[in-house]
Amino acid sequence: MSKSVMGWALIFVMTAFFAKPSPAADEVSLAKDMTAVIALLGLPCGQVVSVKQQGDNDHIASCQDGNRYRVFLNPEGRVVAQKQ
Hints:
Layout: H1 3-18, H2 23-40, E1 48-55, E2 58-63, E3 68-73, E4 79-83
Antiparallel strand pairs: 1-2, 2-3, 3-4
């Protein structure tokens, strides 16, 4: 292989190795997860529009219908959503 092809291959590999997912993509994914959790618990929400992390496995989810829920793990390890 020529040196220029090797150089471009190295640049490509290094870029892929050091690339990080966008924080916005993580936030969208978390909002979708919170929407699913709240729906599975049978609580009204519609869709989660924002999520604020308070700690490990402890979030405040704001819904499009105006409801807010604290979604967290209780001491038994179960997911709980408390209306705020």
